[in-house]
Amino acid sequence: MGVAGVGALAVLAAMCLAMFRALRGPTVYDRILAVNHFGTLTVLLIAAAGFLSGRPEFLDISLVYCLISFIGTVAVLKFFEYGDLGHAGRRDRPPAVRESGAP
Amino acid sequence: MEAFLGHYNYWIVVALMMAGLCTVATSGNLVKKVIGLNLFQTSVFLFFISVGKMAGGTAPIVAEGWTRYSNPLPHVLILTAIVVGVATTALGLALIVRINRAYSTIEDEEIRRADLHRLP
Amino acid sequence: METPALIFCVALPLAGAALVVALGRWPNLREAASLGAAGWLFLEVLALLPAVEAGERPAAVLTAVIPEIPIAFEVEPLGMMFALVASFLWIVTTIYSIGYMRGHGESNQTRFYACFAIAIASAIGVAFAANLLTLFVFYEVLTLSTYPLVTHSGTDEARRAGRVYLGILLGTSIAFQLFAILWVWVLTGETGFRDGGILAGHAGPAATGALLLLFVFGIGKAAVMPFHRWLSAAMVAPTPVSALLHAVAVVKAGVFAVLKVVVYVFGPGHLATATGAGWLLAIAALTVIAGSLVAMRRDNLKARLAYSTVSQLSYIVMGALLASAWGIVGAGLHIVMHAFAKITLFFCAGAVLVAHHRTEVSELDGIGRAMPITMGAFLVASLSIVGLPLLGGMWSKWYLALGAIEAERYAVLAVLMLSSLLSVAYLLPIPVRAFAKRSPKAGSGVEEAPWPCVLAIVITAAGCLALFWYADRWLRLMEQLVRT
Amino acid sequence: MRHHHVLHVVAKMTIPLILVFALYVQFHGDFGPGGGFQAGVIFAAGLILYGLVFGADRLRRAVPAGLAGTLAAAGVLLYAGVGVAGMLLGGAFLDYGVLLPDPMAGQHLGILLIEFGVGVTVAAVMVSLFYCFTA
Amino acid sequence: MITAHLPALQVVVPLVAAPVCVLLRRSRGAWMVAMAVSLFAVAGAWSLLAGVLSRGPTSYLLGSWAAPWGIEYRVDETNAWVILVVSVISAAALLFARRSVEREVETDRIHLFYTAWLLCLAGLLGMAVTADAFNVFVFLEISSLSSYVLVSLGARRQALAAAFRYLVLGTVGATFFLIGVGLLYQVTGTLNMADLAARLSELGPHRTVTTAFGFLAVGIAVKSAVYPLHTWLPNAYAFAPSAVSVFLAGTATKVSLYLLLRFLFTVFGLEFVAGGPVPLLLALTGIAGLVAASVAAVRQEDAKRLLGFSSVAQIGYLVLGVSLLTTAGVAAALIHLFNHALMKAALFVCLGAIAYRVGSVRIADLAGIGRRMPWTASALVVGGLSLIGVPLTAGFVGKWYLVAAALESGWWPAAAAMLLASLIAVAYVWKLVESAYFRAPSPAAASVREAPVSMVAAAWGLAGANLWFGIDASLPIDVANRAAAALLGG
Amino acid sequence: MEYLINTVLLALLAVTAGAIAYLRNLFAAVMLVGIYGLLTAAIFVILDAVDVAFTEAAVGAGISPILMLAALALTGREQTAPTSPSGAGIAIVLATGGALVWGTLDMPYFGDPLAPVHVHVAPRYLEGTLSEIGIPNAVTSVLASYRGYDTLGEVFVIFTAGIGAIVLLGNRRGD
Predict the structure, then answer these.
(1) How many beta carbons lie within 10 A of that of residue D62, not counting itself?
(2) C-alpha span between E431 and E303 (Å, rounded)
(3) DSSP code at position F82
(4) Is A45 close to F5, i.e. CB distance below 8 A?
(5) Which residues of D touch F53 (CB under 8 A)?
(6) Domain limits for position B22
(7) Is B42 at the interface with chain A, CB within 8 A?
(8) What confidence category does residue A98 fall into, taking pLDDT thresholds of 50, 70 and 90?
(9) DSSP states along E4-58
(10) pLDDT digits (tens, 9 = 90+) for E329-363
């Protein structure tokens, strides 16, 4: 087990923790953060896996993950800020959805 | 034991499929139903990709120094299936938005009740 | 013998129907067309008679819906006889209808004449059918074309009656008759009518018995109890329709089909081997008696006549089920005899309705003075039904009785006798009341129905008389059936 | 989100990069992971990011809804057109080998064209979907 | 040259025409494109069928790649027949659709309506003609997605709920199908149907294959609305735009049933199927569907919903025919498949025409239509008689062969159930006829005129076909017998 | 090592799936769908399906959750009625799962190089991608050429979805 392997295991461990946070909540921001965190961890995991399998040239997949993660976060935040993803940015509507905590 | 290890992957995938199917079957909320469909389909994708995996193989992009590649065919099939999945999701959600406009609810029960009250 | 004229015989009334619809706006022309088609058809059918009497079998193929089973026609003696009766009575009924429908001011007359013509076309189709499929096809067309006639008035009551009519006739035919036809086809690989039957050697006693049951009940038009309800329900229809149902086409098509199936599919010889035929015979006998008993208790004239029909039809079914030569001859003759007698009775009932608006037997006191011709004809027809000599009805009962003796079914003989007595009891009081009793509100002088009605009544009543004297030709025709 | 200056600046910087990356994914599909579909999604993601940050209306001004519909149709037509071209040139439907005298070069050309068609359609449909859901 | 490419063109032409309709943006133009494509499809299907009948099955290699590696199109008697049915119904439905859609769909969406129509047509044709198990899935989804869209365009809000329900069940069904294909692929390594058949026959008893069969069968059963997986159908048909009801009722479930035949007999093979409980299960679902759906149909107050339930019942006939696993049974099912498409399309066209004039298809609102709209109502009667199976209509021929096949195999209960269902059909068809002819017109119907000529033409075109094939059924009988022999024999 | 990662990821997936099925909060469910997509994509990488991973990341973790969020924004609701586990539904699901597990018993083992999928059909793709098509990525050559027709269908599927959404919702403001 090389460095990549250790790294991968560490990432996995971190993923489990992030997962716990995503499930527990309790606030919206916990979840958003957890998801964001999860995205980052996945990027790392893929990088590690690339080295593990001996084909690191697939790193550009992780680029996509970063990108999607970023756009996703923007979308989620906008959802909470305005309740409409196409909104131009003026605060004239109340948020459509309120978090009610974990069940 | 060998059988367990050899099939472990598939069994988890089956469990995931059933979680998805269960969500579709038991949830009264339409968005939740679409989410369930999504889970179900994604799990099926996992099954296909597991089928295509070859032990000790690598991604089917031919390169120097590799002789064992995983099967590219399931990958192609699943690429198509993923697209089908997102198409279904998009259409389902579009329908939900319209249903919400027409009924002001996205709960199965309430929709049914609304139609019962107003005879066709 | 290939004879395209057969197809023409079926097509002629259809063309008549089309013409009637086309001429709907001019009542005189419309009814002339109807009458013309009827007359022409009768001549066409009559033209076939010599060949059939000579033992030939004119045939024609229309089309093959299902390979191996074409829609095809073949004239054999039984069909010849039925076609003659139906086409002749069409003329008479048309004459009568002209008087009745106008006299009674009915609406939808065009639909009436058109559907009537289609019904006749299908009756001819049934008569000439060369195989079970063809028979079934025209049997169903007959049901469907008479449905609008039954619901003619369009009232709720008529619609309900129509539902019963259609439900029983279509229901039994699909559930039992079609099933039986398919079964025969699967068993024998054919459905054609052949002398001596086609089932012998293909079906054991149990299967034969089951098939017999399916056919007898599947041909709902034969009105064997418990599938007789449609006939009384259909009494809501105008009188010419009742005549059509009871005498010309519908019930006759039913018993004719039973007879034809027995003669040409089972074969009298093979029929005798069927298990359970005795039970069917008993059901038919029960229908004869029960029909008569119910008829006695009905005050409504048409209802009484309807139950009389139920009873009389089972004579024919009994004759067929006896599986004896004379029984079949008697059954065949009874189709003719009963047709003439019963149509006269219905015409009379209709005439009374048109002229005096009376429908109940109890209202008929003294009506004979107002309508001497009508009630005279009623008396003649009643006696023919009872089976007195000098009237046609006597011959068929005679041969049916001979058949019962031949088959050694003495119980059937007893049933025949008993039912004759019962028919005396439910029919004769009517003319007796009409002539003997004096009505409290009897009008003065003679007031008959419109003249076409009277003409039709006279023709059919004369027919009842003539059939007694000229029965031998029919007899010889029927004897062909059993000359094997 | 007019007042989110950081977001605006970051978006303005990243969106062109995303679009270029999409083109890379589009044309690098022969050698590594990627291809028309992925490229289309990423391209659309770039546009959607623009819509998220600056509002759907501004995106509509840049990429009119009608244009998106037209492009979606054009993309599938390009794909099917390549197939029909194969048919007209004597091969079967979607036979790229006959597109050029050298079969291998024909395959290359065919794959390039159809992947482009896929990319265009997918991007256009994704943007259309975004419009639909942000009405 | 065109003839050689016909198998592909049959699918490609509608596919290509769909985006063209989007680009056209004109409702009339889109209709004309759709109609032209459907007519082309009819001509193509006819030519394919003629070719198959005279020269035997043909195969077409897409992209010129040989069969197990590339995707193959294979046309034999069975699918040439199904393709013909689908194309004809599409053309007839389009003839009806022009005026009806103008009324029921917003003007600026009509061209997209026809786009979805063409996609649905292409999907159905693609499912029928392909010989590749996964390709079936792709085209299944094209047709399904477009039919969800088409159904959702119904004027009432229930259409949306019905479309959503259809979408959920349809997607579950399609995913089941996909699982089945995956399992088959896993144990054989191939997706080509002929190759699959060859490899499956070498495998012998195999639990994975059995499971695959189960999933494929359930997936297809959902799509073809086999009882009790039919729950999406009645509402989808009832609330869809009239033209869509015509189109889907005549085609969608038919193609799925074709798939059932294809997988039963071509892929898994008679031996595999006959060995297990499959025939019994099929027969039981068939009988249950026949009786239960017929009874449900009688209780409907909405004519389109009534016909929807009747469709479920009719599918029961087809399943029952197939369950016999004999040439006679399969041939009968194929004949009835064609006839049922004709009669249901005719009936839905008539109801659509009535909806166009009266604005409702509740049975009570049909009152008096017989006098107000004589042509439409008479076509309705012809279609209804055919549905009952009255002689001299197409419906009779199909039922004749179905019952005969059941009797031949000694399946008495099946024959009895079929006849019983016919009886119940009398009841529900007569509800329509009685209301149309023997009731005084409702206020809504009192002032209506006969439907537009194009609708009457479509109605009588289909009703006439019902009569024609009831009088001379030699074509369907011949084709169906040959198709069944080919399916079961080799 | 790969198997270990795979196993852990699958376990995480199972937890996520369970949570999605259980949660009543729709927003949380959508977030978890995103995580589910990411995890699946990661597993795809481990299982050598890099192209699929690419797509799944973009679709499963990107497009789908964004669309769901957008739909939630327009419907603006959370699940009001509690999930009612109907006995029949669960029985059907269990039966289906049981059938599938039973079906796995005769399957080739996971990763078995001699499984039919690796010896039939697929080898030609891996050879042909260089010799017949001339590009190293076998997935692309199968996708675009060997089975290009499927991909054509796929594009039409997404096209259909686009048309459907436009028909249903209209793609102009105020439509």
Answers:
(1) 13
(2) 9
(3) P
(4) yes
(5) 33
(6) 2-56+65-118
(7) no
(8) very low
(9) HHHHHHHHHHHHHHHHHHHHH--HHHHHHHHHHHHHHHHHHHHHHHHHHHHH--E
(10) 999 999 999 999 999 999 999 999 999 988 888 88
Structure confidence by residue, pLDDT tens digits, C265-322: 888 888 888 788 888 888 889 998 998 999 888 888 888 888 888 888 888 888 888 8
Residues E186, B51: C-beta atoms closer than 8 Å: yes
- The set of residues, in sequence order, having a beta carbon less than 8 Å from that of F65 and lying 6+ positions away, is A72, A75, F30, F31, F33, F34, F37
Beta carbons of C179 and E437 less than 8 Å apart = no
C351 has pLDDT over 70: yes
Give pLDDT tens digits for F35-78: 899 889 889 988 888 889 888 888 888 889 988 988 888 886 56
DSSP SS3 for B65: coil
Opening angle at CA C421, ends C405 and C213, nearest 5: 55
Q: Domain residue spans in chain F?
A: 1-79, 100-175
Does residue E319 belong to any structural domain of this protein? Answer: yes
DSSP, residue by residue, C77-105? HHHHHHHHHHHHHHHHHHHHHHHHHHHHT
* Mean per-residue pLDDT of chain E: 90
Judge whether residue F19 has pLDDT over 70.
yes
Give how far C177 is from chain E: nearest CA, Å.
10
**Could you tell me if F117 lies within 8 Å of chain E, comparing CB atoms?**
yes
Could you say which residues from 32 to 71 on chain B have a Cβ atom under 8 Å away from some Cβ of chain F?
Answer: 32, 34-36, 38-39, 42-43, 45-46, 49-63, 68-71
- E483 assigned to some structural domain: yes
In this structure, is residue E167 part of a structural domain? no
E101 closest CA partner among E309, E247, E250, E234: E247
* Structural element, H or E, at residue F35: helix F26-46
Q: Which residues of A touch D45 (CB under 8 A)?
A: 67-68, 71
What mean pLDDT is reported for chain A? 75
The number of folded domains in chain B is: 1
Interface contact flag, D31 F51, Cβ < 8 Å: no
Between CA E284 and CA E281 the distance in angstroms is 5
Q: Quick check: B85 and F79 CB within 8 A? A: no
Q: pLDDT confidence of A103, banded at 50, 70, 90?
A: very low
Domain limits at C478?
276-484
- Which of D:48-87 have CB within 8 Å of F? 48, 56-57, 60, 65, 68-69, 72-73, 75-76, 79-80, 83
Q: Domain holding B26: CATH number?
A: 1.10.287.3510
Predicted pLDDT of residue F80: 63
D73 with E20: Cβ contact below 8 A: yes
Residue C444: how many other CB atoms lie within 10 Å: 7
* Other C-beta atoms lying within 10 Å of the C-beta of residue E331: 26
Cα of first residue to Cα of last residue in chain B, in angstroms, is: 60
Q: What is the biggest distance separating any 2 CA atoms in chain B, rounded to whole angstroms?
A: 71
- Measured distance CA(E305)–CA(E295) in Å, rounded: 13
The complex scores an ipTM of 0.88
For the segment C125-158, what is each residue's pLDDT rounded down to a tens digit? Answer: 999 998 898 999 899 888 888 888 888 877 888 8
Per the structure, the complete domain to which residue E458 belongs is given by 277-490
Asked if the structure places residue E339 within a domain, the reply is yes
Q: Is residue C119 included in any domain, yes or no?
A: no
Q: What is the CATH number of domain F1-79?
A: 1.20.120.1200
Q: Do the Cβ atoms of F107 and E138 come within 8 Å? A: no
* Eight-class DSSP state of A59: G
| Within-domain flag for C356 | yes
Burial bucket for residue C441 (CB in 10 Å: 0-12, 13-18, 19+) = exposed
Residue C59 within any structural domain of the chain = no
Reference F61, options C484, E412, A66, D95; nearest CA is A66
Task: Say what percent of chain C tops pLDDT 90.
Answer: 1
